[in-house]
Specification:
This protein is an alpha/beta fold.
C-alpha cells in the first residue's frame, strides 16, 4: 500500500515542506509517491515537482484529474475536459494519469447523469493517455452504477482504478467522510477490482482512523492519498494512535495524553510539545511523519493476517 502525497499547494509551501523533511533526517522518503492536480497547481509548483521527479526524489508521480474542483463548484466539467485534454497531451512526464471524472455530491439528484458523463469522458480520453498509465475513477451511489464503471474500464483495458464516491460534508461538499453507505460501495468496488486483478486507489482518505477501519474490513488498496495531515495541522490538531488530538491549550492533561499515545512514535517535529502547539508547520510535518507510521502499521497488519509474521 503506497501513500501518495498530495502537493497541489503553493511553491513556497512545497519547498518549505521538502526542506524541513530533509532536515529531519527521517530515512523514509515522504516524496516517493506524489499526486498533484495540474489544472489547480501553480506553474512554479509543477516546475519544482518536475525537478524532484527528474532528480529521482519522486519515484511515482500521479496527475489528478481535478474532479474535486468540479465537485466543489470551482470549475465546470466542460472546462475540465478541455483543459485536461490539452495538459495531458503536452505533458508526458507523469507515471499515472487520472482520467476525467464528474463526482456526485451528498444529496445530489444528478448522480446517474454524472456517472454516465464520467464513463463517456474516460472513453474519450483513451486516445489521449496510454492505457498502461491510465487510472479511471469509479463513481456511483448504487452497486449497478459501480459495476457499470468497472465493466467499462475492464473492457477498455484499464488496469488501475480509483474510488472517489465518498460522502461529503462542509459548506461546499469539500470534506470526504466514510458513511455506512459509502463504505458498502467501497467494499463492493474493491471486490470487483480484486475479481478483475485491477490495481485500486482510494482518493481523499480523511484521517488515519479510516485506514484502520478499512484494513479491519479487509480493504487494503494498492494506493491512497490524503490531505488530512495538512488540514489537521492547520487546525491545531495532531495525529497519534490512529486518532486526532486537538491542542486546545497547553494543559498538563493534554500533554500527558500526547505522551501516553505516542506508542513509539518519535520524530524531529514533536520532540518539543510547546513548539508543536505554537507552530502550524511543525504540526503539519509531525502529521506527515505519523501518516508514514500508519502506512507501515497497516502493512504489518496485512503481513500478520497473511501469516507472514
Amino acid at each position: 500500500m503506497n501513500f501518495y502525497l498530495p502537493l497541489t499547494i503553493s511553491f513556497k509551501e512545497l519547498r518549505r515542506i521538502y526542506k524541513l523533511w530533509k532536515k529531519s533526517k527521517d530515512p523514509r522518503n515522504a516524496f516517493a509517491n506524489v499526486i498533484v492536480s495540474p489544472l489547480s497547481a501553480p506553474r512554479t509548483t509543477l516546475e519544482y515537482i518536475r525537478q524532484l521527479r527528474d532528480a529521482g526524489e519522486i519515484k511515482n508521480l500521479m496527475f489528478d484529474s481535478g474532479g474535486y474542483q468540479v465537485q466543489t463548484g470551482k470549475m465546470r466539467f466542460e472546462d475540465l475536459l478541455r483543459n485536461l485534454h490539452d495538459f495531458y497531451r503536452k505533458h508526458r512526464w507523469a507515471d499515472w494519469y487520472v482520467l476525467p471524472d464528474y463526482p456526485p455530491s451528498l444529496g445530489d439528484s444528478d448522480v446517474e447523469f454524472k456517472v454516465q458523463k464520467t464513463i463517456e469522458a474516460v472513453k474519450g480520453f483513451m486516445y489521449v493517455v496510454p492505457v498502461e498509465k491510465a487510472i479511471a475513477v469509479i463513481h456511483g451511489r448504487t452497486e449497478e452504477q459501480i459495476a457499470r464503471c468497472v465493466k467499462t474500464y475492464v473492457e477498455l483495458g484499464i488496469q488501475y482504478v480509483g474510488f472517489g464516491s465518498f460522502s461529503t460534508s462542509g459548506r461546499k461538499g469539500e470534506v470526504n467522510f466514510i458513511s455506512q453507505q459509502s463504505l458498502e460501495l467501497l467494499k463492493y468496488a474493491y471486490s470487483l477490482a480484486k475479481e478483475h486483478n485491477l490495481k485500486f486507489h482510494i482518493f481523499g482518505i480523511g484521517a488515519p482512523s479510516y485506514l484502520k477501519v478499512l484494513a479491519e474490513k479487509g480493504i487494503i488498496p494498492t494506493s491512497f492519498d490524503s490531505t488530512g495531515w495538512m488540514k489537521a495541522g492547520a487546525f491545531q490538531q495532531i495525529y497519534l494512535s490512529f486518532s486526532i488530538i486537538r491542542f486546545s491549550d497547553l494543559k498538563k492533561e493534554t500533554l500527558s495524553k500526547i505522551e501516553e499515545q505516542r506508542n513509539g512514535h518519535v520524530c524531529l517535529f514533536c520532540q518539543d510539545l510547546r513548539e508543536l502547539y505554537w507552530s502550524r508547520i511543525v504540526r503539519i510535518m509531525h502529521n506527515l511523519a505519523y501518516m508514514l507510521d500508519c502506512v507501515e502499521s497497516i502493512k504489518d497488519l496485512t503481513k500478520i493476517k497473511n501469516g507472514l509474521y
